[in-house]
Automatic annotation (TrEMBL):
<protein>
    <recommendedName>
        <fullName>DUF7931 domain-containing protein</fullName>
    </recommendedName>
</protein>
<dbReference type="InterPro" id="IPR057691">
    <property type="entry name" value="DUF7931"/>
</dbReference>
<dbReference type="Pfam" id="PF25559">
    <property type="entry name" value="DUF7931"/>
</dbReference>
<feature type="domain" description="DUF7931">
    <location>
        <begin position="19"/>
        <end position="165"/>
    </location>
</feature>
Amino acid sequence: MTSQEQNDGVHAVSGPGAVADVRLQLLQATRYKLAIYLPNLPATAFSTSEELAELRRIGISGRGAEIRVVLGDPDTALREGHRLIDLAQRLPSVLRIRTPIEEDQNTNEVASAWMLNDTSGYLLLPDADRWEGRAALRDGPGHAPLLLKFEQIWERAQPASGLQPLGL
């Protein structure tokens, strides 16, 4: 086993800097598809120039490119002028944001945040308000149940229509 393969496995993540580093690594490893679940969108998440450049790269990566975000509080992110919202307005067919239905907001997942890419990488923060969790750049067995849960929530979620540009 190479040192890179060892680094790709599940490991603990603690602290805002470590979480930001893992987020960027996962974005860089993403080919075409990304799934993100956030109860709220912190100002520091998905807002750096590097992260936005990677999101843009994924968004224009070609046929099948898809960035899906389930966001519990899109109105606050819009009001605060979060840069991810601006990018979603510029790439509406690729970067789609939905809000979870009320039943999904009353589950344990509402307190957690996670990010999944198409290379079996993930970042899971069991409590979205704390900078502690686990991550892996490649972990199919850990990735699969998170993706299944995301798909279920995504299918029930409603489009965040308040985020659409007015097109004046």
